Amino acid sequence: MKNPDAGGMRAGSRFGRQAEAERNDVRVLYAARAVFAEQGAEAPVSAIAVRAGVGIGTLYRRYGSKEQLLHRLCAIGIAETIGELRAALEREGSGWEALAHYMAAAVDARAGAFAALAGTFSLPEDIAASNQEAKGLAERLLLRGQGDGTVREDVTTLDIAHVIEMFSRYPRRTEEDDHARRRMLALTLDGLRAAHTGLPGPRPDWADYHRTWDEPSGTP
Q: What is the CATH number assigned to the segment(s) 70-220?
């Protein structure tokens, strides 16, 4: 007689393997974001596998190349950024409070980690379009703060992007590192408030920033 539980056991086994694969994928993506933030585009895939606690074969079974992994990271990152920006725009309180909340969340997620990858691979059209959507939302968020007089008038959305990128690369090896990062971020966010001294130099230009992404310097 056929074992009535055999089919269920096989299904359960498949489910278990799928769940483990999904957990491994989350670990790989989280590790990849951290490794690229700290080491830049030249970081070896092996370093990502070590950080994630998975074998290199496990990583390559999910992502056939480094560029596939980068595309996946960028797609997830920009989706998270858009979600955080929309939440910030709906947040009650002053414009500065909404902007500071978004920037702190973006830094915690290391949303600026991808700046280290600029020029190393081509952005698919869907990701480029999502980047433009995020840029528009960030502009709305900044204008809200400048409109209610709580954010300084000389700040630009590119300034905000640069702050997020800088703190995304901040090392987090120890609890002390994380504490120092949070203190420095708090000081920086306070500097976005209105009634501060003027910023030095010309306003940053988005065209110059995008130029680093437009012409990949080589395939990772």
A: 1.10.357.10
